[in-house]
Specification:
two-stranded antiparallel ribbon, 33% helix, alpha+beta, 3 helices, Alpha-Beta Plaits, single chain
Length: 156
């Protein structure tokens, strides 16, 4: 039986613990809308949403990342109904040199594990998608994308 080869989702030979900025998307298994409570929608009006109990756990887990990993800074994030976006910075020392830092995979894995433990089972899709931010323009585009994404979803 031939097994399908998985598409490589990380850059080959890239050190994901290097100082830099990373845009990360993590999806809920089967894209179930677990992270928002829909608190009303009527024809002709925008629906209103708030974080569900799972969404609050995820929000708390994201806010705790920098406490557990001092070299990781959360520049921006959004908890959507069935996925999250994160803009993570790995900081170097005062001279910009790498310090002992976890990889992005470690950070995301630990965050997902914490949420799964709080919920009682895994709500996550395997792996995650990342983009290495290459310059200031790229950073601003992704920062604004995260900032505006919840509003776009609410207005759909």
């Amino acid at each position: 039986m031939d097994l399908r080869k998985r598409k490589r989702i990380r850059l080959k030979d890239y050190d994901y613990s290097n100082p830099g900025v990373y845009f990360v998307t993590v999806c809920i298994k089967d894209r179930k809308s677990l992270l928002w409570d829909n608190v009303g929608a009527t024809s002709g009006r925008h629906k209103q949403v708030r974080l569900s109990k799972y969404g609050k756990i995820v929000d708390d887990a994201i806010r705790q990342i920098s406490n557990h990993y001092p070299t990781i800074k959360i520049d921006n994030y959004a908890v959507m109904s069935d996925y999250i976006h994160l803009l993570l910075s790995i900081e170097g020392d005062v001279n910009g040199r790498p310090v002992v830092a976890p990889t992005i995979s470690t950070v995301i894995s630990q965050m997902k594990g914490y949420v799964s433990k709080q919920v009682g089972y895994s709500i996550w899709q395997k792996s995650f998608v990342d983009h290495i931010i290459r310059n200031e323009k790229d950073y601003i585009e992704h920062f604004n994308y995260i900032e505006n994404n919840p509003y776009k979803a609410i207005c759909e």
